[in-house]
Amino acid sequence: MKAKLLHEQQGEKTFVLIFDTGDEVASGLLDFAKQHHLASSHFTTLGAFSDVTVGYFDWEKKEYKRIMLPEQVEVLTLVSDIALNQGEPKVHAHVVVGKADGTAHGGHLLEAHVRPTLEVVLVESPQHLQRQTDPESGLALIRL
Questions:
Q1: pLDDT averaged over the chain?
Q2: Which region, left, alpha or beta, applies to residue 37 given φ > 0 means left and ψ of -120 to 50 means alpha?
Q3: DSSP letter string over the chain?
Q4: How many domains does the chain have?
Q5: Within a domain: residue 138?
């Protein structure tokens, strides 16, 4: 992954991240967030994956059901926020992908490998967001 700071003004920063073929997206985003100490960010994305695993949160089991799509897909949308959870950046990303037959699948982004590219525009706000573990779901949710 390559990254470049495009703009910075009054504490707000805009980065572009370019993932190349074979790069793993979820871990790459988290690594970038940690490296740049991101605490209140959001991003949008365009590109494609050679494979993707999404998650659907099973309320009864309090865990994500893993849904694997081991095929080339187009990224129709990938949106996320990054907030602090116990002092560390946490990436919360949802993705919708399109298959060759025109069907769409989506969920919480768990893992994805890029092919041929993924273009991310990430904006960091000067105000920080905090996550706290919700006792009912067990999920780290943003608390204002």
A1: 92
A2: left
A3: -EEEEEEEETTEEEEEEEEETT-BHHHHHHHHHHHTT-SEEEEEEEEEEEEEEEEEEETTTTEEEEEEE-S-EEEEEEEEEEEEETTEEEEEEEEEEE-TTS-EEEEEEEEEEEEEEEEEEEEE-SS--EEEE-TTT--EEEE-
A4: 1
A5: no
* Residue range of the domain that includes 12: 2-128
CATH number at 45 reads 3.30.1330.80
Phi first, then psi: what are they for 41, rounded to 5°? -130, 160
Q: Is the residue at 6 inside a domain?
A: yes
Residue 74 domain flag = yes
Residue 144 lies in a domain: no
- Residue 11 has phi, psi (to 5 degrees) of 85, -10
Chain segment 79-132, per-residue pLDDT in tens: 999 988 888 999 999 999 999 999 999 999 999 999 999 999 999 987 765 667
Instruction: Work out the average pLDDT over 43-52.
Output: 96
More confident position, 7 or 125: 7
Q: What is the pLDDT of residue 142?
A: 63
